[in-house]
Amino acid sequence: MEDTELRHTKGGFRISQNRFSGFGRSIIEIAVIIFIAVSIYIFMQFLGLFFHKLEIYMWIVKDLIELVASLLAVRSLGNGLTRNLLPKYKERAISIGNLFKILGYLIVIVVIVAFTRISTESALFGGTVTGLVLGLALQPVLGNLFAGLIILGTRFIKPGDIITVLNWQIPYQWAPNPGYKFFSPDYIAPGFKGRVLEIGLFSSSL
After folding, report:
1. Which residue from 25, 77, 147, 186 puts its CA 20 to 30 A from 173's CA?
2. CA-to-CA dists, residue 43 to 29, 35, 50, 123, 134, angstroms
């Protein structure tokens, strides 16, 4: 089976071929993730035989292992979905894969929190305090996060589009040429122009 992969060239996009299929590679990655997660859990159980205090915190270790393994599995499935859709949807497949990963991450976090031993009151209180602290400390990061969600949801900008990103650090300048611009209020908008390669949660590639 062969795998298709999107690459950017000077003239646009091209599709290269690899050995594994889109989901075939993901299945192998998920199998490796499960093997590593089970191995870590067995190792922690073995340590618990010698350090009895660890048994008190084994449920925390178990939940953390499940959370990390599930997030990695969702990421692998999202990448596999992107690779599988590349031949048909070209650059749009990247946005579909990213959207799948975002939804998968949210579902995994909600499910893990719902089935953990932490009480509902403690979870709500901890989530509220953590949300306030992170909201104040990570305002720029959260701004980029919600901007990425809006762009992915509304498809206002799509991979393959040619856009200009204005840079506020470069001041606006009058357009002196050609000569008739002396009588025009037009400005040269300073920025960076390029083709959109990928739209992610926190950043996009041109």
Report:
1. 147
2. 21, 12, 12, 28, 33
Task: Give the 3-state secondary structure of residue 74.
Answer: helix
Q: Contact, 157 vs 151, CB < 8 A?
A: yes
pLDDT for residue 67 is more than 60: yes
Determine the Cα angle at 128 with ends 126 and 130, to 5°: 65
Query: What pLDDT does 21 receive?
Result: 60
- β-pair partners for 204: 199
Using CA atoms, how far apart are residues 15 and 138, in angstroms rounded to an integer?
A: 37
Helix (H) or strand (E) run with residue 164 in it: strand 162-166
Q: Omega into 178 within 30° of 0, i.e. cis? A: yes
How far is the C-alpha of 3 from the C-alpha of 18, rounded, in Å?
Answer: 5
Cα-Cα-Cα-Cα dihedral sign, residues 12, 18, 20, 26: negative
Using one digit for the tens of pLDDT, what is the confidence trace for 71-98? 999 999 988 888 888 877 777 777 778 8
Taking residue 86's Cβ as centre, other Cβ atoms within 10 Å add up to 22
